[in-house]
Specification:
224 residues, 6 strands, 16% strand, alpha+beta
Length: 224
C-alpha cells in the first residue's frame, strides 16, 4: 500500500497531454454562467408565498361577506325600531285622546244644565263666571259644539227625537235643537238631538222639489 505524503493537496485529474492550468478557467466560467442565468431569470418566488396569498384572499372574502350580513342585520333592526317608536307614539296619542274624550263625556250633563240656565236667564252672578270658565277650559281641550236649527238632517251627526211635517221645507230639516251635539277632533262624542220636519205630503214645496229632481234625472247634465 502506498502512504499519502502529508502536506500535499490532492489535485484534480488532468488528461494526458493537457496543461493542468486549463481546468481552473473552466470552473470559473461555469460559476460566471450560473450567476448570469440567475440575474436574467430573477429570484424564483417561493411556492409558500403564493399559497399564503390565496389563503389571505379567501379570508378577506369571508370577512367582507360577514360584514355585509351584519350591516343588513343592523339596518333591519334599525327599521324595526323606528316602526316600534311610531307605533308606540300612535298608541300614546290614541290613549290620550280616548282619556280626554271620556272626561269630556262626563261633563256633558253639566254643560246641558248650563245651557238650560242660560236659556232661562238664570246664568248670573258667580254661577255665570264658573260656567264661562268651564266652557273656556273645555274649548281649549278641543271640545266643539254643533247643531243648528234649519240645517239639513244628517243621520251621522243628528239623532231625531221628534218628527213632524211642515209646508215650508223642501227636505228633512232640523227645526229644533233639543240637545246640542259635541265632537272632539274627528270623534263624535254625542250626536245633536233634534226635532225634524219633513215636507208636507202634497205640498207645493215638496212637489217642486220632486219635479226638479225628476227633471235632473231625465235630462242629465248639459253638454258643454
Amino acid at each position: 500500500m502506498t502512504e499519502e505524503t502529508p502536506g500535499f493537496d490532492e489535485k484534480p485529474d488532468v488528461p494526458s497531454g493537457a496543461n493542468p492550468s486549463d481546468a481552473e478557467p473552466n470552473a470559473a466560467e461555469s460559476d460566471t454562467d450560473s450567476v448570469n442565468a440567475e440575474k436574467e431569470s430573477g429570484p424564483a418566488a417561493p411556492a409558500g408565498d403564493a399559497a399564503q396569498d390565496i389563503a389571505l384572499t379567501a379570508q378577506l372574502d369571508q370577512v367582507r361577506t360577514a360584514l355585509n350580513e351584519r350591516t343588513a342585520d343592523l339596518q333591519r333592526l334599525q327599521a324595526e325600531y323606528q316602526n316600534y317608536r311610531r307605533r308606540v307614539e300612535r298608541d300614546r296619542v290614541t290613549v290620550k285622546e280616548l282619556a280626554v274624550a271620556t272626561l269630556l263625556s262626563e261633563l256633558l250633563p253639566t254643560l246641558d244644565d248650563i245651557g238650560r240656565a242660560r236659556e232661562h236667564g238664570e246664568l248670573v252672578g258667580g254661577f255665570k263666571s264658573v260656567a264661562e270658565s268651564l266652557e273656556t277650559v273645555i274649548a281649549k281641550m278641543g271640545l266643539q259644539q254643533f247643531g243648528k236649527e234649519g240645517e239639513p238632517f244628517d243621520p251621522t251627526i243628528h239623532e231625531a227625537l221628534m218628527h213632524s211635517y211642515a209646508p215650508d221645507v223642501t227636505e228633512t230639516t232640523c227645526v229644533a235643537i233639543l240637545q246640542p251635539g259635541y265632537r272632539f277632533g274627528e270623534r263624535t262624542i254625542r250626536p245633536a238631538r233634534v226635532a225634524v220636519a219633513e215636507p208636507q205630503p202634497g205640498s207645493p214645496a215638496k212637489d217642486e222639489a220632486a219635479s226638479a229632481s225628476s227633471d235632473e234625472d231625465t235630462n242629465g247634465p248639459e253638454e258643454g
